[in-house]
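Predict the assembly for these four chains.
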Amino acid sequence: MATPRLRIRKLSEPTISRLPVYQRIVESFRRRGITRIESSQIAQLTGVTATTVRRDLSGLGPLGTRGAGYDVDVLDQKIGEALGHDRTYSVVVVGMGNLGQALVNSSNFLIRGASLSALYDADPAVVGREIAGHVVRDINDPMIEATVGVICTPPSAAQEVADKLVAANVHAILNFAPTVVNVPIGVAVHYVDFSIELQILVFHLLNTMNFAGGILHSVGVTAQGQPDARAVD
Amino acid sequence: MATPRLRIRKLSEPTISRLPVYQRIVESFRRRGITRIESSQIAQLTGVTATTVRRDLSGLGPLGTRGAGYDVDVLDQKIGEALGHDRTYSVVVVGMGNLGQALVNSSNFLIRGASLSALYDADPAVVGREIAGHVVRDINDPMIEATVGVICTPPSAAQEVADKLVAANVHAILNFAPTVVNVPIGVAVHYVDFSIELQILVFHLLNTMNFAGGILHSVGVTAQGQPDARAVD
DNA sequence: ATTTGTGAAACCGTTCACAGCA
DNA sequence: TGCTGTGAACGGTTTCACAAAT
């Protein structure tokens, strides 16, 4: 039973997307043996304002010390709790092309409660091979149940794969194929589209060359903030 | 000399991130020979409201016809103009691991004005190989000038690569390494972090299982809208 | 003295409701 | 009639300014 689970009331969408970034910074401080961190330091490194950082963190309960900043260990743990890192969940990845391999071999993808359940591919040359400690299964084999499914197939196969994932009781899908997939109500789909990321970046480049701050993932652009890169790894 | 460039005044950040999605839908209509499209159809397929679609598009000037919807050709072209697709720009990709290969081999990444200039890697076993029609260069070779640089290296190398890119006059960086990089003012950095995407998805799964709509890349979750997946490819 | 935490104001984007046109 | 385009209302997030705490 451990700690009684304090239900976090209302974390806004923008806050949720920033918390993982904060946590990465906090952990890099921790690894370097620094025990305290200030909102202004997180702000500097992420490009958001210190006020926003404090407002975000205040949603997790009062965890800073006025005058001194936040305790790095406490902050790391509290953010982790808020994001549900104490819960584990299973992941299946479909499509073992370069992208699928990049994901499962990355030391940065399946972290914080995620555990890889199975890999699938349609290519007979790939099925049976061992990747990241898992034998790649045939997409036509019965699909293992999992919490999250990751689609790394060509777009033409994405819908079919999504259907299979839903049938295997998957509740959330991370879709790297540039296609909209149709799923029942209650299944979350999150899209990642490299081409669109690039287009957004280029738009900014061509138009507004004068924008400030914001090195956050997904909308980040550095400017005056001059974050100290070496501070984060 | 061509069309006089109408400077687009103010396109909001959310609008900019939706336009590429709209365009993808418009083009799928076009490929199927459909000549008109309504805001409600785009809305259905993206999960945003029809009003938002119209509001977004109205920023590009009046291009619809009241009573009938939008002309597919005109809309495609206008969105392309707004996003700067009539301008070409060059891209260098650094790091030819699985991710780098996935990107340059994808038919969906380098589109709309992007042209690949050069590939780089640090691994002698990879340098000299031909990938996507380009011989992979050594990261220590002089770097070709380009508009955009893409970092697909391990995080430990990201800062060094960013420095080299900046020295090669790159003005925008798409960083797939989970690290903050330090660049001079005027250089845009956009971060893509798979782990964070996954964490955000799982947060939603664990907490609010009751949220509506929004199948857009980056914050998308399907629900009642029931977009017809087959309509887009 | 310094930094957190937070009401209140300002700002921005979305939605509503409807006018404008084909 | 049907759908676009948009002023106005709304809701939510960020920023300001300052009180609270050590």
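The CA atoms of residues 162 and 183 of chain B lie 7 Å apart. DSSP finds seven helices and ten strands in chain B.
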